[in-house]
Amino acid sequence: MGAFVISRRFNDEYKFTFTSRKGKVIFTSLSYELRFECEEDIQRFKVNIDLSKFLKFKGSGGKYFFKLMLGDVHFATSRKYTTELLLQKGIKEIVTYASKSEILDFSSNEAIFEDEEVVEDEIEME
């Protein structure tokens, strides 16, 4: 099952990505000023996934991508795919798993994992 991952952009705005079961990013949302706006849009998408449209494009470099539309509003843009078949698999992953995917919030500045030095110091003390 995939997951929605909330994080921050370099300009301190929020975004979320939808990742596949294997951990690959499938699409990235637009920017949000507030974190709760991300959560609201994720919930809105999960409930209204049947209203989604996938506009498929081929970029100038020959790679494929899609724009995810929720109603008439541009909601997110996919990563680049090397083939149209892989693009279609990405869309299928969204349709199949997005409505039941969990939300992970990595937007805080707190360290998720301990510093490597701290762990090494603890190992040396033992």
UniProtKB/TrEMBL annotation:
It comes from the Bacteria. This is DUF1508 domain-containing protein.
